[in-house]
Amino acid sequence: MNIRITFEGETNQETSSDLITLADLISEECGVSITQEKQKPYPGVKDSGLTVGLTIVGLALAGAQTAISAAQYWQSQRPQYALSIYSEAGVYTLDNVNREEVDRIIKMISSLPQATTQDIEIQIYKK
Q1: What is the pLDDT along the chain (127 residues), one digit of tens a residue?
Q2: Cβ within 8 Å of residue 8, ≥6 positions away
Q3: pTM greater than 0.90 (yes/no)
Q4: What are the boundaries of each domain within the chain?
C-alpha cells in the first residue's frame, strides 16, 4: 500500500515543520522510511527547503492502519488542522473524531480488496 500525505493551502515554515513532525511520528510508529516532498524552488532560489508532502511506499495493511492512526493522533494534538483520507472506500474527514470513528474508517479501508487499497491519499488543511 502507498500513502501520500499533502498539505493543501499555503505552505510556510510552521506547516513544513508540522509535516516533518508527522513524518517522524509515522516513521517511528511504522518503522518505515518516508520521502519528504520539498517545495519547488522559486526562480533564482537554490532551495526553499519547505516540506509540502510525504510519501510512504510499500506498507503492509497493518502499517497503513498504524500510519492512519498516527496521522489522527498528530491531528488531535494540532486542532488547527483537519485531515481528509481518500481511498476507494470513500472520503473521510478526521476533525477531532473519537478513536471508534478512526477504527471504523480503518476497518472500511481494510475490507476492500488489496488491489483497491493500493493508494491512499491524506490531505491536511488548516481550518
Answers
A1: 889 999 888 888 899 999 999 999 999 998 888 999 988 766 665 666 788 899 998 888 788 888 988 998 899 899 899 999 998 878 988 887 777 888 888 888 777 776 655 788 999 998 8
A2: 123, 124, 125
A3: no
A4: 2-126
